[in-house]
Amino acid sequence: MNMSNVLSTRSADCKVFDNWDDAEAYGAGGIFYSWLNDQKRFPEDVQSVFIVMPSHHPDDKDENPVMVSWNVSRWKLTGTQEKPTLSPSLFWIEHWHGFLENGYLRSC
Fold first, then answer.
1. DSSP H stretches of helix in the chain
2. What is the pTM of this model?
3. How many domains does the chain have?
């Protein structure tokens, strides 16, 4: 079976961090925001939401986390800073498809 053609079906609880390294170390569901300015009002000042995505390969236990940037000019960011929601669905081509709802990555 060619695993490159299989989407991950993993879901993950999310946790927001103040820096990239901590979000990446958390693994799937680690979130880090890039801000448009120093005011950091949520959600209006968020430029991008960086999310460590669930592993593509079902046997990979986040040994090689991949952080994907979701630009909020293309997605609607709601919820709270600690429990964000991005809509519509997130599609990481050939890897994962699902939703970020209330701080939880839910696979389709």
1. 20-26
2. 0.86
3. 1
